[in-house]
Amino acid sequence: MLPALTYLLLLVPIAAAAAVSLAPSRTAKWIATFGSLTAFVVSLAFAWSFPGWTDGSMHPAEAGVAIMPSLGISLTLGTDSVGLMLILLTTFLMPLAMIGSFTAVTEREKEYYGWFMLLEAAMVGVFLAKDAIMFYTAYEFTLVPMFFLIAIFGGKDRRPASIKFFLYTFLGSVLTLSGIIYIAANYANAHGGQWTFDLATLANHCSTAMDRTTQYWVFILLMAGFAVKVPLFPVHTWLPLAHDQAPTAGSVILAGTLLKLGTYGVYRIALPTAPVGGVELDQFFAILCVIAIVNTALICWVQKDAKKLIAYSSVSHLGFCMLGLFALNPVGATGSVMYMINHGLSTGALFLCIGMIYERYHTKDMEQLGGLFKKMPVWSFFMVLFTFASLGLPGLNGFVGEFLCLMGCFIAEPGAANHPGLLGPWWALIAGSGLILAAMYLLIMLGKLVWGPLREPHVDGHGGSHAGSDGGSHAGSQVSSHDGSRGGSHASSHASSRGSSRGSSRGSSRGSSPDASHGGTLGSVHAHADAHDTHGSALPRDLSAREIGILVPLAVVCLAIGFYPKPMLEAITPSAEKVLAGYPALVTEYAANGSLLPVSAAGASEVAMAQDVGSSDARATQTNELGQTR
Amino acid sequence: MISSLLAESNMSAKLTLIAPEIFLFVGSVVVAVLGLARSASVRRAVPTVTALFLLGSIGVTAYVYRSDAVEASNLLLPQLGGFVKALIAVIGILLVMVAGPAIDRRLEEAFDSGGAAFDPIRVMRGEYFAFFLLSLAGTMLIANANDLIWLFLAIELSSLPTYVMVAISRGSRRAQEAAVKYFFLGALSAATFLYGFALLYGASGTLDLVEMRNVFADMPELPTLAILGGVMAILGIAFKLAAVPMHFYAPDVYEGAGSQTTAFLGFMPKVAGAVALMVLLGVFWTPATDATGGATAVLPNAILATLWMIAVLTMVLGNIGALLQRNVKRMLAYSSIAQSGYLLIGIVTGPGAGYNSILFYLIGYGVMNTAVFAVLGSLERQGEEVETLDDLSGLRQRQPALAWMLALSAIGLIGIPPLIGFFGKLALFAAAIDHGQTALVIIAAITTAVSAFYYLQLVAVPMLGSPTARTDAVHAVPSSWPRVAAIICGVGVLVMPLAIERLVTASGATEVPTVQSLETAAEGPSEDASEADSSAPTEVASR
Hints:
The complex is a heterodimer of chains A (630) and B (543).
Chain A: H1 2-22, H2 28-48, E1 65-68, E2 73-75, H3 81-100, H4 109-128, H5 132-141, H6 143-153, H7 158-190, H8 199-209, H9 212-229, H10 238-245, H11 248-273, H12 275-280, H13 282-301, H14 306-326, H15 330-361, H16 377-391, H17 397-411, H18 425-449, H19 459-462, H20 474-483, H21 486-499, H22 501-509, H23 528-531, H24 535-538, H25 545-563, H26 566-579, H27 583-593, H28 601-614, H29 618-627
Antiparallel strand pairs in A: 1-2
Helix pairs in contact in A: 1-2, 1-4, 2-3, 2-4, 3-4, 3-11, 3-15, 3-25, 4-5, 4-6, 4-11, 5-7, 6-7, 7-8, 7-9, 7-10, 9-11, 10-14, 11-14, 11-15, 13-14, 13-18, 14-15, 14-17, 14-18, 15-16, 15-17, 15-25, 15-26, 16-18, 16-25, 17-18, 17-25, 20-21, 21-22, 28-29
Chain B: H1 2-7, H2 11-17, H3 19-34, H4 40-44, H5 46-64, H6 69-72, H7 80-99, H8 105-112, H9 125-143, H10 148-168, H11 173-204, H12 209-218, H13 224-241, H14 249-256, H15 259-281, E1 286-289, E2 295-298, H16 301-323, H17 328-349, H18 353-377, E3 379-381, E4 384-385, H19 389-392, H20 395-398, H21 400-414, H22 420-434, H23 438-464, E5 474-476, H24 481-495, H25 500-506, H26 515-523, H27 529-533, H28 537-542
Antiparallel strand pairs in B: 1-2, 3-4, 3-5
Helix pairs in contact in B: 3-5, 3-9, 5-7, 5-9, 7-9, 7-15, 7-18, 7-24, 9-10, 9-15, 10-11, 10-15, 11-13, 11-14, 12-26, 13-15, 13-16, 14-17, 15-17, 15-18, 16-17, 16-23, 17-18, 17-22, 17-23, 18-21, 18-22, 18-24, 21-23, 21-24, 22-23
């Protein structure tokens, strides 16, 4: 039963993608919605029958299909409670993102929904992989759909944004791949040429049988890819650009799940595989986290673009998430996993909210928008709710994870009884200042967008803030939204779209006629073909039933987790304890000696590496060095 | 020399093994004659006949490499030929599909429309495919080389026809300029490695590769003469691979030649170079045991350092050079230089897993390379070749299938899983790290990330760009064969990973030399070499 469900989880989105590519394009969104909902149902069934909720074990335990036996690669699927929660997060967000795109995407729909379905399969594949190469395959493949989604459907700087996104993450992950191969080769050398890429076996081999200097370097290689994906401080620059340019659903998935691939990689692979590196570089990475938290929070403070603000806040929030992991105790790691899920929910929801505004006003600029409570009370309610969730108000989901991350960091002192760590109260204090900053910038955003005097983009200043791809009918629709009279808006927007030479080619190419969109007030669905041009009129002034339907499930889950996080915490903690099992001893040793490596090994091994490669007995030396356990 | 060759007892075994080449020789004569036929339909059949001969050579290869002749042949890498010949013939058929309709197209059109009278002097199609087959036969012969003279002749046989092919690939002065450039530099490289061969002969006193290996193995220390000879030979063969420092010709020649011939140059000479290096370096690899007692092999320091430097420089300069290009063919020329760098990683890694991973890598590379050039060959702009990225802008809207195939193969060339290119790189990197070449792999990984930038242009421009006034003039060529080849290759990139283990097994053609096999090889054809070899751990890994 379980193995079948895991295969189904992968196959359903792939089948949906295939169906989207074959079916006519007007059915694409329905196929994608249906496919992602089916995947969600399958993941619920998987979660329902999952036996490992309380002990952190991996299920299903069966060995998979061998793909490349010569290198020990197989399609082995299985996950533990943490991976399963992230799968649920993915499959939960995906249908919402799909339904949320109905009016936003009206061109090249087949590609849009097809790529999203492939992206879902890849993301689920990452969380399901028990084989390092399957993990890497899924992890790396997420780049391709996301590249196309940003590059085709993004804003006006979409091309550089997508290429930057691809190159940054690709550079990191090829280094991760070499790290993985290195461990596997080492394993093969030690086991008479028997290759395997099984994650648990490799982690066990690397943490017990490999010498410390090697572990140190392996950790650096592994982290290279994950740090870019998270993203950690110096390599985060691709993220704001990618988020800013991505279509709304792309941002939702990017923030909601794709970034979690990085943290999940650290949790599942980097930390348990090379604990020596984890301890040795613990404070280094913790400093990067703290810089990310504080520095990016300050950047958020001065943002004028709402979407960019939330994008930067993701960097800051994921700093907390990584800090929780680097506390090296189960409290912090549990908090970190909670944070991954909650960040996915609340930030995903915030991107959806901003996307709804963007569809109406075609701007995300907080200078031009304000006081929307007066026009859109329902939207404002959700916006406030999710902002509070994001800044960690107690009672909402964000609080639990944030608190536990800081708590883990606070108690992570070398002298701590159960799980000694290398951080401590001071680290928690500095990182905690990020909370205050987060409250500040998020409340400022709310103050500008929701409250205060009503500000809407002016008719004249409007065209400049456009992506440049929209037709000429905005002026008409803007006028109408100022009036607030629906019927009038139809008349005026169509009059202008027919009258304007700018907009006419676009409108007619889609075959939209004035008659077709008159029904638009009932539900935006039928009028979506016209939505881009007549956005102000096709969408109701406040949220439509469809949009409310997207946000309500998110709000319910946010509240539920905030009020009763206990089952989740109980499910995560055993897994976190397993991941961190090797750490207490090493941390104590590190705290006593100041280093785990042989004297100046870091420098020496670099030299040795450079020398080795040039010499004929490189191979003998290397194997010799790797073979012995220090 | 010839007489001593004939005197050897295993001559018949050798003749059996080169049956596929002999078959192709016959084919080249037939094709050359058919190309001169007065009847247009006979001339039109030339590519088909070429493809049939290649198909036949696959059959002959499959037949002879199952016989006892392989064991009796006394080669350093006895099984290598079977795989290499099959690979060359398969990719060769795809290349014929790309080149077939393009050669002499204008001339044939003129004949058809009565614009020109038939003139056997002016038709080139027969010559082109005759030389095509000759070059493939030469490349195949390299895999069978068991002495330096054979190796030299085989490399030259694979090179010389390509100079002519470049010259007649399209009726343009640039093609002729490219051919002259290619020829002179090729002659220089031939002189270089011939000089190296001479030094090797001087150092060992024999031309036979197996004997030479035994002579070197018996010496306590390799003489400088032998090292110098090896380095010279490597540098000369680096020309075939287009590896630094012998890479300068590649961008100009690739750009000057017609796309269909560039597709050929992007693959066949690389196979020739890689196989020649494998065969030649066999004399230097000496069996050793590693720390855990497993069989392994080591190269003399100077040779290893030379190869290592060439590999690193080739990867770095190739990828950086490609970043700067707007002309697709020049970009692909630099990218093919970089690909040679990856192949050299396998050479440095050594017989067994390293060589096998090269052969495996070549499968994927051959298909992806052919796909890219087949797409270029399917398009024309006002009768000229499509060469710049600007010409490809918005291709998706005119030729969706071609744009998708281009994108697919470019993503494959980057090495994104689960396409075939990824598994090639994976096998290569795994073998290299397993043999202690971690630093090389990390450099390769970083340069791969660099390569993603220019390969992404091949994805982004056709898929995401919009048609311009310039691209309005871009049309598909009348013949659909290049398109068919592009689609076959593109689909291959996608579905070949499903048969990954079969391809790995097929390419597992080389074995790491062991002390036992060295001794038995000295006595004569080895019966138990394969048995002894299978105990080596790297061998287990490669199966």
